Amino acid sequence: MSKLDSKVALVTGASKGIGAAIAKALAAAGAAVVVNYASDKAGADTVVAAITAAGGKALAVQADVTKAADGQALVEAAIQQFGRLDILVNNSGVYKFGALEDITEADFHQQFNVNVLGLLLTTQAAAKHLGEGASIINIGSVVARITPAGSAVYTGTKGAVDAITGVLSRELGPRKIRVNALNPGMIETEGAHSAGFIGSDFQSWAVSQTPLGRIGQPQDIASIAVFLASDDSYWLTGEQLLAGGGTR
Ligand SMILES: NC(=O)c1ccc[n+]([C@@H]2O[C@H](COP(=O)([O-])OP(=O)(O)OC[C@H]3O[C@@H](n4cnc5c(N)ncnc54)[C@H](OP(=O)(O)O)[C@@H]3O)[C@@H](O)[C@H]2O)c1
Questions:
Q1: In what residue span(s) does the Ketoreductase domain sit (predicted)?
Q2: Does the pLDDT of residue 224 top 80, yes or no?
Q3: Which residue, of 137, 138, 191, 245, has the greatest Cβ tally within 10 A?
């Protein structure tokens, strides 16, 4: 008997990076997993193939989390395929760092739309189907705690994720649905490579701020997500778990 046997999970932005690792870890713990992607169908199909090859159940579903109708269709796909929903991981996110003078309206709206509005719309759609014991995990970031220079918009989105996590833990607590933020430090992902973080001075600075002396890998976050998804964390809600090797 595995920890998440008979549970159904939905992971947004699971075509790569942290989301892909979380989807695989939840499946390895017994959950059937909906692997959401926005544009990278091949990535999502690879994650589904890895899960099914290991004997698990998974389904890739395209949805842009910034669109309410997409969020509803995504949740409906989970219900139609697997009959229920127990775990929601709001992981989809975009990040673009830049100094105050470089902030644009477009960058603001893109990051707030995916990281904040997307989380709200997906949670709104999922909440209708979640029952007692369900777990919502919002992927935030340690940046909301350490507020690095040159990250006002992105850090603003993750500060909002922390705040919304607290609010929704109160709104959904009476239904015995838990809501926690899981906040990684720097993690080596496709997105971190594209953003130019890996091998940069920013990475060296991040390591210098990390007691455990390295940046993270997606699996470092996935195992904590399994804990937050499972009943092992049944007394935790409204928390902001820093998952950055001690970065704070
Ligand atoms: N990497 C880090 O250092 C780090 C640190 C702290 C927190 N985080 C957070 O962790 C999460 C994942 O980051 P990552 O580094 O793994 O990112 P990543 O490698 O760039 O992957 C991002 C994922 O989000 C999806 N996505 C983007 N826009 C979307 C939309 N409109 N609708 C649905 N999905 C969308 C992408 O889908 P497609 O590829 O299919 O388009 C992809 O699956 C983000 O919330 C990020 O802020 C990352």
A1: 7-190
A2: yes
A3: 137
Catalytic residue from among 37, 95, 154, 234: 154
pLDDT band of 18, cuts 50, 70, 90: very high
Nearest alpha carbon, ligand 1 atom 7: 141
With a cut of 80, say whether residue 237 has pLDDT above it.
Answer: yes
Q: Say yes or no: domain 8-190+218-240 is CATH 3.40.50.720.
A: yes
243 residue type, one letter:
A
Q: How many whole angstroms from its chain centre is CA 133?
A: 19
Structure tokens at 32: 């059937």
**What is the residue extent of each domain of the chain?**
8-190+218-240
Distance 11 CA to ligand 1 centre (A): 11
Q: How many other C-beta atoms lie within 10 A of the C-beta of residue 204?
A: 11
Q: Mean pLDDT for the chain?
A: 98
Q: Verify whether ligand 1 is closer than 6 Å to residue 244 (CB atom).
A: no
Q: How far is the CA of 10 from the centre of ligand 1 (A)?
A: 15
Q: Which residues contact 200 (CB under 8 A, 6 or more apart)?
A: none
Task: Ligand 1, residue 197: give the atom nearest the CA.
Answer: 3
Ligand 1 within 6 A of CB of 153: no
| pLDDT of res. 1 | 76
- Order of strands across the sheet with 87-90? 58-62, 32-37, 8-11, 87-90, 135-139, 178-184, 240-243
Report if pTM > 0.85: yes
Decide if pLDDT at 154 tops 80. Answer: yes
